Amino acid sequence: xxxxxxxxxxxxxxxxxxxxxxxxxxxxxxxxxxxxxxxxxxxxxxxxxxxxxxxxxxxxxxxxxxxxxxxxxxxxxxxxxxxxxxxxxxxxxxxxxxxxxxxxxxxxxxxxxxxxxxxxxxxxxxxxxx
Length: 130
Description:
By secondary structure, this protein is an alpha+beta fold. Helix content is 40%, strand content 12%. The protein contains one helix and three strands, in the order αβββ.
């Protein structure tokens, strides 16, 4: 009597092998995704604060030249190379707040929804008018 040998029809993977690979990929994605999102948020926050500081420098330079602070954001575009820098947390070039008094000015990047929850850095400028 002959022994029966099952034949393997193809050189593909079994369902169990595919499920194990998918399980491993799922675990890796669960571990790596939060770190990736956190690093993206950190980079956007850093860029928003750096852009606000650059804007504050342009505001201070113009205040020294003109003798007063201007709160219109677009007025600083020429001083910044033609455009206002993008705030990556809001996705717009209008994502900055300029508040002034007679002797000082504060520049803050808007929080927006692209960076999670964070507290932006306030850049306070002073000018005596002399």
